From TrEMBL:
Highest taxon above the source species: Eukaryota
Protein name per its UniProtKB record: tRNA modification GTPase GTPBP3, mitochondrial isoform X4
Naturally occurring in which organism (per UniProt): Sapajus apella
Any one annotated GO CC term: mitochondrion
Keywords of this entry: GTP-binding, Nucleotide-binding, tRNA processing
One annotated GO molecular function: GTP binding
Domain G: 308-391
Annotated compartments: Mitochondrion
GO biological process: tRNA methylation; tRNA wobble uridine modification
Location of the MnmE helical domain: 212-525
Length: 528
């Protein structure tokens, strides 16, 4: 049974885990805020308990937590960690949001308090259009009055906008001269400056329009190249992972409240029975859920970055022909001469909707020259970290039990229809002809099943963990819950729950450091 004694504010000497407690004298020098970045003096409180641990001890009450009732005129330290907004965030920003180059329509957006003024200046003497309605306006250079373009403009007053601030979109013709002219005109408006990469999304995050996992989902959606990547990114952008983590955080908050209630009111008769037992049940259930998500073998990360598929086998088995067939382009040289491929040739492809790095390798054989032997060595080395092997006959002995193997019998068009088929000792295999394409559909379906097992199916099941950051915080939360179960002192148990909850909060963006936010937002293009 965990034990703990509540710290009382009357200055009475008590013992809690080996800590000495005493009262601050009324005429003592006012204490200073514990924050290293603040020197705000705190008021003299005769009832303030100061604690000096004799051993390592994490205390339930921190100094700011104890200052609940203050004399009139007293100040609390209000200094907080750095905001999610970038320096100079009060300015209004603008950028080209659509792609660079000639196009039919280009979209230029602004965000900030001067957006409405910028729209009035470029469309003078017209007033602001109705909110969220497209209006055709003539854009003019505010310096010379020269017409720039006739464009559709949309006015999004905050907070009902993407960033939560006043926003404007200019849908102009996509010629480079038009885009350049409008950008220069916006740059001449007082209070406007060009946006940095990801700054629009960063402002949306700062104003609570997106949490951090949704921001990451938006970045993945922009960079998605396959159907599976799009589905996974869209689920994360819709907030599935964030909602899951918030639910877990609420569970920990409830458990922490139960532990705190027992610490504060365990001596009273009006406390419900089984408070600590209920907290233990909730923590055990959360441990099971966290463990299941951490056992996904990094499938979400692999889906973002792509799986590695290596084609290997003996010389002249049709490996290069198969790589060209799967990639739908001439990646490798095809020749009847053995040993044509002497290095590992890699190409990114979309296989059945999954991102794949497809590798062609040298034929596996002995007794050849040093150059081809180096290619064979690299081929064997590639098989040590691949996700799936597409192999021809003779290559299965080079795959260990941890690798996923598809055995393909190529050149099925040379088989006689009346001749005997493969022997009964042949392991499970697929027949294929790279010349006629017969058997390609079966191979693609087999690859889709293998890749779904390796990368996960983004259309079903719980949301996947797409970044190492997600794994780190969930593992940290699970470790903290392990400390909770081992703690014999209620104060340490409560602190373990706080640490676990903090990991979940940081996963969705609460309490994140500026450096982490910089890394996440720099992956966005300018204008998003």
């Amino acid at each position: 049974m965990r034990k703990g004694i509540r710290i009382r504010g009357n200055g009475k000497r008590q013992c809690w885990g080996g800590a000495r407690i005493w009262r601050v004298p009324g005429k003592a020098k006012p204490p200073i805020c514990a924050s290293p970045s603040c020197s705000t003096p705190l008021p003299n409180l005769r009832h303030l308990a100061i604690i000096e641990p004799l051993v390592y001890l994490t205390l339930r009450l921190r100094l700011p937590d104890a200052l609940i009732r203050l004399p009139s005129g007293s100040r609390l330290c209000t200094r907080r960690s750095s905001s999610a907004l970038a320096p100079g965030s009060g300015a209004t920003i603008f950028a080209l949001s659509s792609g660079q180059g000639r196009c039919g329509v280009a979209v230029i957006r602004t965000s900030g308090p001067a957006s409405g003024q910028a729209l009035r200046i470029l469309t003078a003497p017209r007033d602001l259009p109705p909110a969220r309605h497209a209006s055709l306006r003539l854009l003019s250079d505010p310096r010379s009055g020269e017409p720039l373009d006739r464009a559709l403009v949309l006015w999004f007053p905050g907070p009902k906008s993407f960033t939560g601030e006043d926003c404007v979109e200019f849908h102009v013709h996509g010629g480079p001269a038009v885009v350049s002219g409008v950008l220069q005109a916006l740059g001449s408006v007082p209070g406007l400056r060009p946006a940095e990469a990801g700054e629009f999304t960063r402002r949306a995050f700062a104003h609570g329009k997106l949490n951090l996992t949704e921001v990451e989902g938006l970045a993945d959606l922009i960079h998605a190249e396959t159907e599976a990547q799009r589905r996974q990114a869209l689920r994360q952008l819709d907030g599935e992972l964030g909602h899951l983590c918030r639910g877990w955080a609420e569970t920990l908050t409830k458990a922490l409240a139960h532990v705190e209630a027992y610490i504060d009111f365990g001596e009273d008769d009006n406390l419900e029975e089984g408070v600590l037992e209920q907290a233990d049940i909730e923590v055990r259930a959360l441990q099971v859920a966290l463990g299941a998500h951490l056992r996904d073998a990094r499938r979400g990360q692999r889906l973002r970055s792509g799986a590695h598929v290596v084609v290997t086998g003996p010389p002249n088995a049709g490996k290069s022909s198969l790589v060209n067939l799967l990639s739908r382009k001439p990646v490798s040289i095809v020749s009847p001469e053995p040993g044509t491929t002497r290095d590992v040739l890699e190409t990114p492809v979309d296989l059945a909707g999954f991102p794949v790095l497809l590798s062609d390798t040298a034929g596996l054989r002995e007794g050849v020259g040093p150059v081809e032997q180096e290619g064979v060595r690299r081929a064997r080395e590639s098989c040590n970290f691949l996700a799936t092997v597409v192999a021809s006959v003779g290559a299965q002995s080079h795959s260990d039990s941890s690798q996923r193997l598809l055995l393909v019998l190529n050149k099925s068009d040379l088989l006689s229809t009346e001749g005997p088929g493969p022997g009964p000792d042949m392991p499970p295999h697929l027949l294929l002809s790279c010349v006629t394409g017969e058997g390609l559909d079966g191979l693609l379906e087999a690859l889709r099943e293998e890749l779904a097992a390796v990368c996960g199916d983004p259309s079903t099941g719980p949301p996947l963990l797409t970044r190492a950051r997600h794994q780190h915080h969930l593992q940290g939360c699970l470790d903290a819950l392990g400390h909770y179960k081992q703690s014999k002192d209620l104060a340490l148990a409560a602190e373990a729950l706080r640490v676990a909850r903090g990991h979940l909060t940081r996963l969705t963006g609460g309490g994140g450091t500026e450096e982490i936010l910089d890394i996440i937002f720099r992956d966005f293009c300018v204008g998003k």
